[in-house]
C-alpha cells in the first residue's frame, strides 16, 4: 500500500508542477504608438513599467516598447489530480469532485502505470 501511495503522490506532484509552469508563462505585447525614438526608453518604462524593453526602429525612427501583458487568448487549460478512481468513486464522482474543486473543472479517470487517477481539467 505504501508503494501505491508514493506513486500516486509523485504523479500528483508532476501534474501540479506542469500546471503551475503553464500558469506562470508570461505573455508579451508591443506598443508602437510611442512616437519618435527620442527618450524612447524613459517613455516606454513610464507607460509600461520598469520591466518593459524599448527598441528604436532604425527604418522609420519610431520607438517600440515590449512589455508583459495579459494574453488575448481564451483561458488556458490546466490539469490537476485529486485522488484515485475506485468502485466507490467512478467517473461521475471524479467529474463532480473536479467541478467542486476547480472553476469550470471537468474530471476523468486516467490510467497511470496500472492505477486509475482522477484528473481534472480546468480554466487557469
Automatic annotation (TrEMBL):
Major localization listed first in the record, in broad terms: secreted
Signal peptide stretch: 1-26
Keyword hit for Disulfide bond: yes
Keyword Secreted belongs to the record: yes
Superkingdom as given in the UniProt entry: Eukaryota
Subcellular localization: Secreted
Keywords assigned: Antimicrobial, Disulfide bond, Fungicide, Plant defense, Secreted, Signal
Similarity annotation: Belongs to the DEFL family.
Full protein name: Defensin-like protein
Amino acid at each position: 500500500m505504501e508503494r501505491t501511495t508514493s506513486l500516486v503522490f509523485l504523479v500528483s506532484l508532476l501534474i501540479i508542477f506542469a500546471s503551475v509552469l503553464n500558469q506562470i508563462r508570461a505573455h508579451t505585447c508591443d506598443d508602437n504608438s510611442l512616437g519618435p525614438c527620442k527618450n524612447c526608453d524613459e517613455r516606454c518604462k513610464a507607460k509600461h513599467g520598469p520591466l518593459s524593453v524599448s527598441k528604436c526602429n532604425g527604418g522609420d525612427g519610431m520607438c517600440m516598447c515590449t512589455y508583459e501583458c495579459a494574453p488575448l487568448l481564451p483561458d488556458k487549460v490546466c490539469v490537476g489530480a485529486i485522488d484515485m478512481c475506485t468502485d466507490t468513486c467512478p467517473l461521475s464522482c471524479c467529474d463532480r469532485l473536479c467541478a467542486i474543486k476547480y472553476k469550470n473543472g471537468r474530471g476523468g479517470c486516467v490510467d497511470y502505470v496500472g492505477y486509475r487517477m482522477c484528473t481534472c481539467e480546468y480554466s487557469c
